[in-house]
Amino acid sequence: MLSADGKKQWWNFLKEYNLLIQREYPIGFQLNEDFSNWDTLEDATPHYYGDNFPNGEVSDFSYNKKIQEMDGMVVFEFWKFPEWMVNKTVSEEDSNAVPLYDKYTTAIIDYCKTAKQKTGRAPAIVGIQNEVEQPAKVWQEMTLTLRKALDKNGFEKVKIHMHNGSRLKNGINALNAFTSDKKVWEAIDYSASNLYDYQNYFTNPDGFDKIIDKWNASFNGQPKKPFISTEMCINDSKYQSGSYRVAFLMGELYHKNMVQFDAVSLMYCWLLVNTVQPSFSASRSLFTIDRSKNNVPIASSYQLRVFGAFSKHLSKGMRRVGATSSDDDLLVSAYSNAEKKTVILLNKGSSAKEIDLSGFGTISKMETVSPYEENQTTEIPDSQRLVITPGSIVTLY
Predict the structure, then answer these.
(1) Where are the beta strands (DSSP E) in the chain?
(2) CATH 2.60.40.1180 applies to domain 330-396
(3) What's the CA gap between 199 and 327, in Å, rounded?
(4) What pTM did the predictor assign?
(5) Are 355 and 388 in contact (CB under 8 A)?
(6) Average pLDDT, the chain
(7) Pick from 344, 308, 389, 282: which is nearest to 13 by CA?
(8) Helices vs. strands in the chain: H and E counts, helices first
């Protein structure tokens, strides 16, 4: 629906904000058994709040090819399975839809083959299944048969992330299931979870730390695998607004992801949504479409600038390095590679914080996010003293 100008702006936005992970939910139970409609646009349906989840999406391989050409990556997984993939002898209506494992793996292999044919490469990562709860033995069998099928069909380099629960408490249950079998855990490359239960802690964000600690203690003696934060946004109607306060609370979650989970990637729920309900776009998506200005993409709310404070200057391959703060209200994380360093400072307190920059080395620029500054870039002050106002995020690079 974007105009030609809007599409050009879109690719520029993705590059500027470093939003180069395309996470695919495929066509779901509308997928044909011959896999002929992965990318049939006529089979896509629009979303209205949630009345037709989770089966509205289709793939666009030309879009994915462009993402990959920009040094991005594609992550693929099923949500609900098509009926022909479900084992009806063990699956009950309105209960867990246990897959027929051969059909499940054949479908993912076909997606990989189709993606390679149409884009030049298979997805970088495939997930076990989005949000749908399964018995431990089902998750385990899905993992082992999928790894075997990928290797057999020449997709040895395609990685697997574990099932991602809708909330971290569900993720902990899944983590226990995946780590309880050594062979299963060896077949998994990434741990993963959605984090929608963080919204229960909006009046006490640090209360969420207890659940994060429980996650970090639930690997059952198995080695930790890199963490993918597969899905975050505001889906609680109490908080679905375009306010800066709500976006800033999400900023605290991004910090927790990077520092307490040591995440290797953060994924907002959607990048672009075009709906008739402004609050839905403002909270569920980073961008929306401005129909009044020739159908161009615009920030849906303050969410984009806050996410951008973390995404814009964290290039692929950068590693988090040690950084501490002597003030509990000043959150800090630092990153580096061979070429550059990035430091992200978030002031969640009610008073300004002054920072001495004299020991920050090669860093020369800063980018500020606040209710009044949209990723505003300036030079480091000559005084080497930086004042961070309450509710601001400063990215040094």
Answers:
(1) 21-24, 73-76, 125-127, 159-161, 191-194, 227-232, 263-268, 270-272, 285-290, 296-299, 319-321, 330-336, 341-347, 353-356, 365-369, 376-379, 385-388, 393-396
(2) yes
(3) 24
(4) 0.95
(5) yes
(6) 93
(7) 308
(8) 10, 18
Q: What is the pLDDT of residues 316-371, one digit of tens each?
A: 999 999 999 999 999 999 999 988 999 999 999 999 999 999 888 889 999 999 99
* Residue 214 predicted with pLDDT over 80: yes
Mean pLDDT for the stretch of residues 130-143: 96
Rounded Cα distance between 217 and 203, Å, is 25
CATH, range 4-312: 3.20.20.80
Q: Please state the domain extents for the chain.
A: 4-312, 330-396
- Other Cβ atoms less than 10 A from the Cβ of 350: the count is 8
In the block, residue with structure tokens 């040591």:
262
Strands 376-379 and 365-369: antiparallel
Sequence-separated (6 or more) residues with CB below 8 Å from residue 328: none
Q: For the sheet containing 393-396, what is the strand order?
A: 319-321, 330-336, 341-347, 393-396, 365-369, 376-379
